[in-house]
């Protein structure tokens, strides 16, 4: 099937008629009929049968539809990429980040960056790690901040800063004398916890540490973002392990924080495309990011060193 065949096939499936497909594609009905007949002639079997005045897909058409959907999705990606390339403006930096980074780290960084470049603009997006990678490849973003390194050959991952994984609990969960001290990993045995969803890449790493405990912690609530885990802890729903940047934004009136012992570190990465030399405005943003990230992590060094 040619791309035009696929386009007409999908338009008929969506509208249920040749006339509806013609209106959707902004062409004449004879043109749609001609393309459909040509597709069926090449395939060697009919795609639609007329039943009570409506076009019904044949069993062969339904089998094809699953593969046609994949092609259509790829075409949408091509269109998105072309749109990005056509509308790419100068002096604009497009930055994406996971919800945790967008809330805890980016505001102060972007404020300093815009003060330095008052004539430049910045577009911010909050996405999950997999969506950040896709948006970078589609050239919808210039830079992405995530706790997950990318192994895609078209992307580079620059480590920005590393910090300890933090146990975040509702205020009163630990005794006063325990606060300010690292939390032994063994104390999480059997603990009901708020955990990351099974689809999160960090979940497997955490399971490697927590799976050694007997009994292992019970994941009572699973979430997709550290930011949501923090909000649930603040609501008193349980204990969670979060990155240090998310922990920084927790309400001290509602929560208490302790790094794990032994230390489990997480790394913040800046992802960008390998085939491009970043503009100097992006290079400065990375410098600001490093400085602000290290500043936020300074408070944990004395505790970890105990």
TrEMBL record:
PROSITE patterns: HTH_LYSR. This is DNA-binding transcriptional regulator, LysR family. Residues 1-58 form the HTH lysR-type domain. Keywords: DNA-binding, Transcription, Transcription regulation. The keyword Phosphoprotein does not apply. Belongs to the LysR transcriptional regulatory family. One of its GO terms (biological process) is positive regulation of gene expression.
């Amino acid at each position: 099937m040619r791309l035009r065949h696929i386009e007409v096939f999908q338009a008929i499936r969506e509208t249920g008629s040749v006339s509806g497909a013609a209106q959707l594609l902004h062409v004449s009905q004879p043109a749609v009929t001609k393309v459909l007949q040509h597709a069926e002639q090449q395939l060697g079997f009919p795609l639609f049968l007329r039943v009570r005045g409506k076009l019904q897909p044949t069993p062969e058409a339904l089998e094809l539809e699953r593969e046609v959907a994949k092609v259509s999705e790829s075409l949408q990606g091509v269109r998105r990429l072309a749109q990005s390339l056509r509308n790419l403006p100068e002096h604009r930096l497009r930055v994406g980040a996971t919800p945790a980074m967008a809330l805890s780290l980016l505001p102060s960084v972007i404020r300093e960056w815009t003060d330095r470049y008052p004539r430049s603009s910045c577009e911010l997006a909050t996405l999950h790690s997999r969506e950040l990678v896709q948006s970078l490849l589609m050239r919808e973003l210039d830079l992405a901040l995530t706790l997950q390194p990318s192994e895609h050959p078209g992307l580079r991952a620059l480590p920005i800063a590393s910090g300890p994984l933090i146990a975040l609990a509702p205020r009163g969960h630990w005794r006063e004398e325990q606060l300010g001290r690292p939390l032994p990993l063994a104390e999480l045995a059997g603990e009901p916890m708020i955990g990351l969803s099974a689809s999160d890449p960090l979940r497997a790493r955490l399971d490697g540490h927590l799976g050694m405990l007997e009994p292992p912690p019970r994941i009572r609530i699973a979430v997709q973002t550290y930011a949501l885990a923090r909000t649930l802890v603040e609501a008193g729903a349980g204990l969670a392990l979060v990155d240090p940047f998310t922990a920084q934004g927790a309400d001290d009136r509602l929560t208490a924080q302790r790094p794990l012992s032994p230390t489990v570190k997480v790394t913040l990465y800046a992802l960008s495309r390998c085939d491009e030399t970043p503009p100097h405005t992006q290079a400065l943003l990375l410098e600001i990011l490093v400085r602000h990230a290290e500043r936020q992590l300074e408070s944990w060094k004395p505790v970890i060193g105990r």
